Amino acid sequence: MKEAKVIYDKDFTIGEVDRRLFGSFVEHLGRCVYGGIYEPDHETADSNGFRGDVKELMKELGVTHIRYPGGNFVSGYDWKDGVGPKEQRPVRKDMAWNVLETNQVGTNEFAALMKELGMDLTMAVNLGTGTPKEAGELVEYCNVEGGTYWSELRKSHGVEAPHNFKVWCLGNEMDGEWQICMHTAEEYARLCKETAKIVKWMDPKVETIACGSRTNEIGHNTFGDWDRKVLEECYDYIDYLSLHRYFNYNPCKQLAYKMYDTPADIPFFFQDLKNYLDTVIGACDFVKGVRRSEKTINISFDEWGVVTESGAIPGGVDQEYGYASFCEMDAVIYGGLLCTFLNYADRVKIANQSLLVNEGGMITTDPKGKAIRQATFYPFQDAAKYAKGTALRASAKLPEKETEHHGMQETVTVACTYDETTGQIAVFAMNCDAQEDVTLSLSLRSFGTLRSLGWRELYNEDMYARNTFEEEFRVVPADRELPEIQDGQITVTLKKHSWNVLRFEEAR
């Protein structure tokens, strides 16, 4: 059996774990909003039309904030269509997904939902067909207390107190040919700068996110150079650079680019994500150095996920949108991606799984029926619940395996957080090897005397097993007995294609 050797020292830190790492993304796409979160005739629907069973699962999942309302949708969206009396809102042709948008869910409805659930909202503004002036008007509507045209209009719509959204995305994937009114780097950089200025003039307390390279996938020719050009123009006016990436091991299900990855290439995904982050962080720091700036631009990874073989790909006004059905291996990949974000906690401050419900969702709904947890629900829930405090740097020797297209790659990904206030340590460990178990030898000697708190394992013998409406608990985590840790050392077996959380507590 292969062995992974990992040492964590409480003084070897990466950075504080930002709670916004555990965000998700809601877009007016498919059945994410209409027929997902929002279904007024559902038996659990509240007075605003939001499904109560979905709300309960959102709380159980532990989502801390949500990016809204797009995504590709936002680049053709006029926010004014989605406020005011519902019966007066226009029905528009949505150019992004080629469907009709009824505008029955808009800014105020979604903001009320977020407030009810105790979640923050990251608002995206239209920089496709939209202008800096219109973005400023939206900030005024949402964040100014009163006494101005747009803030008083909000009040007339029944929302007395401002929403005070603190994080604003300036456009979406503006380097993509699929985007409504895509821009060159130079065009977007100028537009982003002027928008950021107006947004911060309206509310100096907000933070802004500029669009970075949409992806590092092969064929996306703006990668790297786009980031540099945008940063050189906008550096003083933005706080984060956004990244998006969807991982795909089903060649029959492609999004924008022709890829060839297969299940045998899954170990490469995590190295690829690290390469992506290293390159973009390098661009941020290059511009910082050239400008001799004391300001650091951090990363908002505001779309990430896995392309599932069963997921509906949008397109066509008559399309019957279904939902994404994720298997056990998809959940294992989710765990590895979350570990990677934790291992970049000093620079990745915001991350949003995409999407929350149905279309790529961790939650799946049956129209007029029940809502279920996808297999991917559980690693996200674990990370949101247990990854607290400070992320620690590992000294590790990890097993490798030959992939189909990317040479030798590590099959185990680990992360560790330490909450000094409670004395609790959480070690997250993913084994994506489809054939072999791995022995994990873990050393935590620097913490002194420790108690073992628990071991949560997500595993199914069939890595393609998935939860369905007929069998909704086929893939669920199990609590395993965690041996007592002796002299800061413990050894456990990570099953093939499994996700694991090992928890300990300092004896105080």
Describe the 3D structure.
The strands form 5 sheets. Strands 21-20-23-18-17-14-1-19-22 form a 9-stranded mixed β-sheet, with helices on one face. It is globular and about 65 Å long. Strand 10, helix 8 and strand 11 (348-354) form a beta-alpha-beta unit. The chain folds into 2 domains: 2-10 and 391-506, Golgi alpha-mannosidase II (Immunoglobulin-like); 11-390, Glycosidases (TIM Barrel), CATH 3.20.20.80. 23% of the residues lie in helices and 27% in strands. It has 9 helices and 23 strands. The chain is α/β, with parallel strands linked by helices.
Mean pLDDT: 94
Number of strands: 23
Structural class: alpha/beta
Give the neighbour order of strands across the main sheet: 21-20-23-18-17-14-1-19-22
Instruction: Give the % helix.
Output: 10-25%
Give the overall shape, derived from the CA principal axes: globular
Strand content: 25-35%
Domain count: the total is 2
Q: Specify the CATH homologous superfamily of the largest domain.
A: Glycosidases
CATH class of the largest domain equals Alpha Beta
Radius of gyration: 23 Å
In CATH terms, what is the architecture of the largest domain? Alpha-Beta Barrel
* CATH fold annotation of the largest domain: TIM Barrel
Number of helices: 9
Spans of at least 5 consecutive residues whose pLDDT stays below 50 are 312-319
Main β-sheet description = 9 strands, mixed
